[in-house]
């Protein structure tokens, strides 16, 4: 199936402006044009756009995404390079998760402090300095509990 830029914008949540920017930045050389010069996208293009969005959201620089797209177009001779790129990006994402979990721990600590302060009627009546050190598994359990609560 073929899609217009407007339809792709609706399907992906990316604006038409962003899709045009991606083309100018060399991220979407795979996008074809119809007889009138309008961009046309297919289902494979949508999949690659979703991957580009994912990589951007994980903090991968546009230059690296452009290189990945180029490797994809070059074919199977670049599989090892693509694998290495994703292994490196996995490490970066894991570091982001670790930092986010540490931030979550600090936020949860402040929630606990303020809950106790509200109950006691004063922040001065609670120990604000003790930050319990939770393990990554305990923090991930909190994240799962949050996700479950959001589904209700």
Number of helical runs?
A: 6
Strand order in space, largest sheet: 1-2
β-strand number: 2
Total separate domains: 2
Domain HTH merR-type: 2-71
Protein name: MerR family transcriptional regulator
Keywords: DNA-binding
Itemize the secondary structure elements and their pairings:
Elements: H1 5-12, H2 16-24, E1 32-33, E2 39-40, H3 43-57, H4 62-74, H5 79-120, H6 136-151
Antiparallel strand pairs: 1-2
Helix pairs in contact: 4-5
Give your account of this protein's structure:
- The protein folds into two domains: 1-74, Multidrug-efflux Transporter Regulator, Chain: A, Domain 2; 79-152, no CATH class.
- The protein has six helices and two strands.
- It is elongated.
- The longest helix is centred in the middle third of the chain and has 42 residues, at 79-120.
- β1 and β2 form a beta hairpin.
- It has helices at 5-12, 16-24, 43-57, 62-74, 79-120, 136-151, and strands spanning 32-33, 39-40.
- Strands 1-2 form a two-stranded antiparallel ribbon.
- Helix content is 68%, strand content 3%.
- It has 152 residues and is mostly helical.
- The mean pLDDT is 90.
- Keywords: DNA-binding.
- InterPro entries: DNA-bd_dom_put_sf, MerR-type_HTH_dom, MerR_fam.
- This is MerR family transcriptional regulator.
- Residues 2-71 form the HTH merR-type domain.
- Pfam families: MerR_1.
